[in-house]
Specification:
With about 350 residues, the chain is an alpha/beta fold. About 40% of the residues lie in helices and about 15% in strands. The protein is built from 12 helices and 12 strands. The protein has helices at about 5-15, 20-25, 35-45, 90-100, 115-120, 135-145, 165-170, 210-220, 230-240, 260-270, 285-295, 305-335, and strands spanning about 45, 60-65, 65-70, 75, 100-105, 125-130, 155, 225-230, 245, 275-280, 300-305, 350. Helix 4 packs across helix 5 (about 115-120), helix 4 packs parallel to helix 12 and helix 9 crosses helix 10. The chain starts with 5 loop residues before the first helix and ends in a 6-residue tail after the last strand. It binds ligand FNR. The site of ligand FNR has 23 residues, from helix 2.
Length: about 350
């Protein structure tokens, strides 16, 4: 079977995964408007190709927080990769390492941070943190990832409570039955446990800007805030001395009815004025999508659900194949817009119908 685009991987995963697991990966909040608009919004942005600029060499490399990656697409943090393939996050880490891009490992990984590093010791890895009510546990986790050579902390700030995902409720969260979150092993032994080793409601809903300062007191690692959608919060992030922002609406899984991320990216990059790096996730499915996000100011983008589809297809090899397709598509988009290898030309490459109605 030849899979030629990310939608082919999606169709394969939908066909082969057990329904409750597929539903968990695909879920959006409430009516799923934002989940679906994340994808559709790219299709309402049009490219302005230039010509006659010698496209004989194309260079998609970039840097994020000073580390070079082979192309501007990384792996967004998503939980429970063990549901997609047996080697779970170890496969993810190996695929990202092989493609020389960044993997953001989730707090909710089925494999422990130690096991993830052992699988791909030279890969560029960041760690995504949820703050738990049990601060001692979060503190210890930060120390562990620091010692293991993770190069940044990605603090997710859009989950004071989990969004309402209807199919997960209908399925009675069956996908959780087979999961162990090894990062939590032993951490909550004295508390009431769910099936996956975590006490119910353990993410701290009191999370606020003072916690950024608290985190900075724990570690020298760069901090990136994931889940910012407005200029007001972007300005606060800069003022709190973080090193980066991921413009994200959690793939439409949290608050339904917010703007697609590509539509709010401009507001955030304008507010930040180049003082820190801005990244984006949500709805990236083609090389053209990547190019549009870069043209609107993102330094790099990240993929969430497609990671699961690649793993479900063939583990590490499947995810690597998917990343390779996205890289090739992005290179072709660069070539056909005559963006060559100078990312500074990208900003002239899109016509945004919100500002230029057709
Ligand atoms: C997520 N996401 C997420 N984010 C995070 O910070 N920590 C996490 O553990 C998870 N877990 C998770 C599981 C699943 C199944 C999905 C689909 C998403 C959100 C993720 O990082 C990202 O923001 C979105 O997935 C990006 O949108 P796309 O690429 O899925 O459209």
């Amino acid at each position: 079977m030849t899979l030629v685009c990310l939608s082919d991987f999606e169709a394969y995963a939908k066909k082969h995964l057990p329904k409750p697991i597929w539903d968990y990966f695909a879920a959006g909040a409430d009516e799923c408007y934002t989940r679906d608009d994340n994808l559709m919004a790219y299709k309402r942005i049009y490219l302005r190709p230039r010509v006659l600029r010698d496209m004989s060499t194309i260079d998609p490399r970039t840097t994020i927080l000073g580390s070079e990656i082979d192309f501007p697409v990384g792996i967004a943090p998503t939980g429970f990769h063990g549901l997609a393939c047996p080697d779970g996050e170890q496969s993810t880490a190996r695929a990202a390492e092989a493609m020389n891009t960044c993997y953001i490992a989730s707090t909710y990984s089925t494999f422990s941070v130690e096991e993830i590093v052992a699988a791909a010791p030279t890969g560029l890895r960041w760690f995504q943190l949820y703050l738990h009510r049990n601060r001692r546990f979060s503190e210890q986790l930060v120390q562990r990832v620091n010692a293991l050579g993770f190069q940044a902390l990605v603090l997710t700030v859009d989950v004071p409570y989990a969004g309402k995902r209807r199919n997960d409720i209908r399925n009675n969260y069956q996908f959780l039955k087979s999961i162990q979150v090894k990062n939590f092993k032993g951490a909550f032994e004295d508390e009431d446990q769910t099936e996956y080793g975590l006490p119910p409601g353990s993410i701290d809903p009191s999370i606020n800007w003072n916690d950024i300062t608290w985190l900075q007191s724990l570690t020298q690692l760069p901090i990136i805030i994931k889940g910012i959608l407005t200029k007001e919060d972007a300005e606060l992030a800069v003022r709190h001395g973080v090193q980066g922002i991921i413009v994200s609406n959690h793939g439409g899984r949290q608050l339904d009815g917010v703007l697609p991320t590509i539509a709010t990216l401009g507001e955030v990059t304008t507010a930040v004025q180049g003082k820190i790096e801005v990244y984006l996730d949500g709805g990236i499915r083609t090389g053209n999508d990547v190019l549009k996000a870069l043209a609107l100011g993102a330094k790099c983008v990240f993929i969430g659900r497609p990671t699961m589809w690649g793993l479900a297809y063939k583990g590490k090899e499947g995810l690597q194949e998917l990343l390779k397709i996205l890289k090739d598509e992005f290179c072709l988009s660069m070539a056909l817009t005559d963006a060559c290898n100078s990312l500074t030309w990208f900003d002239a490459l899109v016509t945004d119908i919100w500002t230029h109605p057709i």
